[in-house]
Model the fold of this input.
Amino acid sequence: MMDIYTIGADVLRGNAAPVDSFDDEFAALIERMFVTMKQGKGVGLAAPQVGIPRRFFVMQIDGDKQRVFVNPEIVETSMELDSFEEGCLSIPGVYADLDRPAEIRVQAWNERGRRFTLGADGFLARVIQHELDHLNGVLFVDRLPERTRDRLLKQYEKRMRA
Ligand code: NI
Done:
């Protein structure tokens, strides 16, 4: 299992660089990330979370296939918002409801370097948006009202010190 970096680590706060080669090494890395994601009982894992400042993430939600998004871009978002509870392997034990666009359209490359476009809603759209934020140095708590964020992070730090 790869180490998962937690909030406070610089690698989680940078703007990740595009992936430019889809070689065997990249394929092996993706496999290791799926293993790490599952061992952590997560549904998504972005490269910066394992210390790699590159623009890709892996995900798998219940009843769906394994999905890989390389150099993803959200090209459309709905005006309608959905509220969903989010958590993150990089902020263990912190969960909060968060509004995001209910539907999105995303363009990306898969692990073999094939380009695709995907329309997504529900939990799938939610996870894609959460993971894509990681590539831009954004954590879900950043999107919460300041008071909620401060309260949750104080509780988190207290637990970490205990
Ligand atoms: Ni996360």
